[in-house]
């Protein structure tokens, strides 16, 4: 399978899905779903990664990584949890997160390969959903408070008459 390259002069805002292998030399603000991924020294991802086979990181990742095999090289800077079946971390790697071994093969699949899309990386998309839910909850609380005030003031008027 051929490799697609996201060049260093390219910044993508949004999710990227590919059935093939990817190399990231540029920047991604969103989630990456692919068969295999190489994040070069110049590459940066602010979002989650789900790769069916392998993730190799030389650059920066801020978000969770889910892949059968993960290799963090000495130039890598990774912040986020890693779900894997095999991992290698070179001396000098900057890593802050939790390593979690998993035998669940569904943890590393996505809709691009015809399988389920159940994994939920920590991403901007997840944050937006949470923010929308919080906003809706705050609006409901405000409406309830206003309704209670109206009922209370309405009750007072009846007593004054």
Automatic annotation (TrEMBL):
<dbReference type="Pfam" id="PF04519">
    <property type="entry name" value="Bactofilin"/>
</dbReference>
<feature type="compositionally biased region" description="Low complexity">
    <location>
        <begin position="118"/>
        <end position="153"/>
    </location>
</feature>
<dbReference type="InterPro" id="IPR007607">
    <property type="entry name" value="BacA/B"/>
</dbReference>
<feature type="region of interest" description="Disordered">
    <location>
        <begin position="108"/>
        <end position="161"/>
    </location>
</feature>
<protein>
    <submittedName>
        <fullName>Cytoskeletal protein CcmA (Bactofilin family)</fullName>
    </submittedName>
</protein>
<comment type="similarity">
    <text>Belongs to the bactofilin family.</text>
</comment>
